[in-house]
Amino acid sequence: MLGTQIKDVILKPDAPSSLLLDKHADYIAAYGSKKDDYEYTLSEYLRMSGIYWGLTVMDLMGQLDRMNLQEIIDFIKACQHDCGGFSASIGHDPHLLYTLSAVQILCLYDSLHAIDVDKVVEYVKGLQQEDGSFAGDKWGEIDTRFSFCAVATLALLGKMEMINVDRAVEFVLSCMNFDGGFGCRPGSESHAGQIYCCTGFLSLTGQLHQLNADLLGWWLCERQLPSGGLNGRPEKLPDVCYSWWVLASLKIIGRIHWIDKSRLRQFILACQDEETGGFADRPGDMVDPFHTLFGVAGLSLLGEEQVKAVNPVLCMPEDVLQRIGLQPDLLS
Amino acid sequence: MSGTGSEVDVLVQRVVRDLSTALNRNRNIDEIGLIPCPEARYNRSPIVMVENKLGVESWCVKFLLPYVHNKLLLYRQRRLWLDRQALVDITCTLLLLNPDLTTAWNVRKELVECGALSPERDLYLGKLALSKSPKSPETWIHRRWVLLHLLQKAPPADQNQTDAERSRLLGEQLAQTLQQEMKVCADAACRYPSNYNAWSHRIWVLQRLAKGNVKVFLDELSSMRPWVSAHVSDHSGFHYRQFLLQELTGALAPPAGCSSNGERSAVEEPPHDLPAVQQLFCHELELVSDLIRSFPGHETLWSHRRHVFFLWHRWKEQHPGDGGDEGGDPAEGAQTRLSQTSAGVPMEVERGCSSDPQDIKRLRRGVPLPQPPTSQTEHVFVSGLLDGCGPEQRSFALAYRKWLDTVVGVPS
C-alpha cells in the first residue's frame, strides 16, 4: 500500500463481517436514557431528527415496540408552534427540518391526528419564495434541502397541491450542475447529500425525467472507493451516511447496479461497533444514531433480508408508506 | 468539583461575565479554543487570553453549557425574563461552545433587529465561532442573514454629503464587507479541508455583493491560484475557480443575444471581450495540466479538468465563428495548431497563452488566440501521462478519457 494517495480507509481483516442487529437495537433503545449527559445537551438542537433516526432504524429492525410511543407523541405535540412548524425540542425555534422529522415520526406511529395538520401545511406553504425555492424558517435561508423537506412533508400529508409545484421544480432544476449533480443553491458545488434531496424532490414531484440519469449515475458511482465505501465528493473519505445518500439516489434513478454491492456491504458492516452496538461514520470511530440508521438503511437497499424494505426517497419503511398510500416514482 | 445550585450560579455568571469582558476589551481576537484542563485552579477564571487567542478551560464547560443552555430555553418559553445585555452575553457564551444551536443565533437576530446588538459585533462572534468550528452550518447560515440585514439597512443620510459622496462611502463599505468575508472564508477553508460550507458561503457573498464585478472576480481568480496549487485535494477550492470562470465569461462575453448581466461595474470593460475569455480558459487549462503533472493521482485535479474542458466548449458553442481579429474558422485554427506539433508533445498545444496572464488589455492584435482543447488534444495529453505513471494517476487518466468519449462525446 506504499505510495497510495487515494483518500480512503483500509478495512482490517478482523472488522465485523456479519450484521449485529440485536446490538444495534439495544444501543438505540438505551440512547438518551441519561438525559443529563453533556453530549446529549449539545445535540438537543436536532433532537426531533435524532428521534426520527432512532425510531426509523428500530422499525426497520422490527423493534419499534421497544420505544415509548406516548412519551414521544407528547413530546412532538409540545414542539408544535403557533405558526404550525415544529422545533427540534421544547423551547427551541421551529424549522422545516424538524417539521419533516416530526411528520415522519407520526407516520411511523400512524398518529398524524395528534397534531394540527392544516397548520403544518400553512407553515410549509408560507416558506415558499417567489422563485419557487423554500426557506428553512422565517429567517429566510434558501437551500435545496428545504425544497425536499417541504415536498416530503406535504407528500406524507397528502397536500402537495398546496404549494406551487412547477415553480418549486424550476428552482431545483436551476441548481443542476453540468456534472449532473446538484448543490445547495444555483452555482453551488455538487454534493451527494444535496443530490439525494434533489433526486428525492424530483421523484415526489413526478419530474425524474428532467434528470440526466446516466450522467448523474456516473458521478454517483465514482463515489465508490477501493475500500468499498462511498464518499460525498471527490477526494473525501468514505462515510457510512453516504451509503445512504449516494445509494438511495442511485436506486431512485435506477442505476444501483452501477455500484459494487458486495464491497459496499463489506464496508458498511465494518463500520459496526461490536462492543457498544451502533454504526460509526467509518471503521473504528464513535457510533451515533445518525450513522446507525443510514448503515442499516443502506444494507436494506442492498437487499439485507434481516431488515425491512426501506423506501429510498423518504428513508422510511416501505410498509409505512404502503399504509399511507404513498409510492414515489423511481426510474428503472 | 460539585457545588450547590447557588455556587454553580455564581461560578457560571462569573464565567459569562469574564467571557463578555474579554470580547469587549479585545476586538482583535482571531481564535478561540478549549484548553484541556480537567481541574479548576483555585479561584482562577477559566477564561484565558494569550496574545490574540481566547481559551476556555475545559473543566468549566460541563457546568457552563447546560446552565446557559437551560437559561436561554426558559427565556424562549417565556418562563424567565432576561434583559438584552444578559441575552447578548448568554448567547455569546452558548454559541462559542455550541455554534450549531440555531435558537441562540435566532435570539441574536432579534437583538440585531431591535438595535440592541450591532451587526458588526455579531459577525465578529461568528468569526470567532468559526475559528473553532470552521464547518458549523448554523454559523454560516446566520452570517448570511446578518449580511443581508446590513445590505438592506441604509445608513442615515448626512445632509452634508453629496449623492456622489454617499455613493462612494456605500461602495467603500461594501468593498470592506466583501474583503472581510473573503478572509473569513479563506481562514475556514484552511482549517478544514474541502470545507463545503465555507466555499458555498464565499460564492453566495460574491453573488450578492459583487454581481458583474469583473475586477473582483479577476482578483479572486488570481489570489486563489497559489492556494489551490497548495491544496490540490480541495475539491471545493477548485469548484470556486469554476464558479469564477463562469461568472467571468458571463460578464465579459455573454452568449449572443444577451447583454452583460447584472449591474455595470465601475471598471470600464467592453461588453464583448472574447480574447480575454479565451485567455482565462487557456490559463486555467495550463494550471490544471501543470498540477496534474506535479501531483499525480489527485481526483480533484482531473475533475477540475473536466469542468474547464466542458465550460470552454460550451462557451465556444455559444460564440460560433468568433475567432477574434484574425477571423477565420476557429476549427481551422485548431487544425493548423495541431498539425504544427508532433504527437506526444502536448505542451506545445497548450502554451498558446500570452506570457502575462492578467494583462488582458495589452493583448497584441494578430497573436493567434488559444483554441479550446479537442477530444484529440486531450487524448494526446492522457497518452503522454500514461507512460510510467503510478496506478492512481493511471486510473484517473483513463477515467477522464472514458468520460470524454462517453459523456461529452466531442467529435475528434
TrEMBL record, chain A:
Q: Which Gene3D superfamilies match?
A: 1.50.10.20
| Keyword Metal-binding applies | yes
Would you say which domain of life the source belongs to?
A: Eukaryota
Q: How is the cofactor bound?
A: Binds 1 zinc ion per subunit.
Does the entry feature the keyword Zinc, yes or no?
A: yes
PANTHER family (alphabetical): GERANYLGERANYL TRANSFERASE TYPE BETA SUBUNIT (PTHR11774), GERANYLGERANYL TRANSFERASE TYPE-2 SUBUNIT BETA (PTHR11774:SF11)
**Quaternary state and partners of this protein?**
Heterotrimer composed of RABGGTA, RABGGTB and CHM; within this trimer, RABGGTA and RABGGTB form the catalytic component B, while CHM (component A) mediates peptide substrate binding. The Rab GGTase dimer (RGGT) interacts with CHM (component A) prior to Rab protein binding; the association is stabilized by geranylgeranyl pyrophosphate (GGpp). The CHM:RGGT:Rab complex is destabilized by GGpp. Interaction of RABGGTB with prenylated PTP4A2 precludes its association with RABGGTA and inhibits enzyme activity. Interacts with CHODL.
Explain the purpose of this protein. Catalyzes the transfer of a geranylgeranyl moiety from geranylgeranyl diphosphate to both cysteines of proteins with the C-terminal sequence -XXCC, -XCXC and -CCXX. Catalyzes the transfer of a geranylgeranyl moiety from geranylgeranyl diphosphate to both cysteines of Rab proteins with the C-terminal sequence -XXCC, -XCXC and -CCXX, such as RAB1A, RAB3A, RAB5A and RAB7A.
Q: What is this protein called?
A: Geranylgeranyl transferase type-2 subunit beta
Primary gene name: RABGGTB
UniProtKB/TrEMBL annotation, chain B:
> Mind telling me which PROSITE patterns this protein's record contains?
PFTA
Q: Which UniProt keywords apply?
A: Prenyltransferase, Repeat, Transferase
**Where are the stretches annotated Disordered?**
319-356
Residues making up the signal peptide according to the UniProt record:
none
Say yes or no: keyword Transferase present.
yes
Molecular function as annotated in GO: protein prenyltransferase activity
List the InterPro entries hit by this protein, alphabetically: Prenyl_trans_a
Protein name, per record: Protein prenyltransferase alpha subunit repeat containing 1
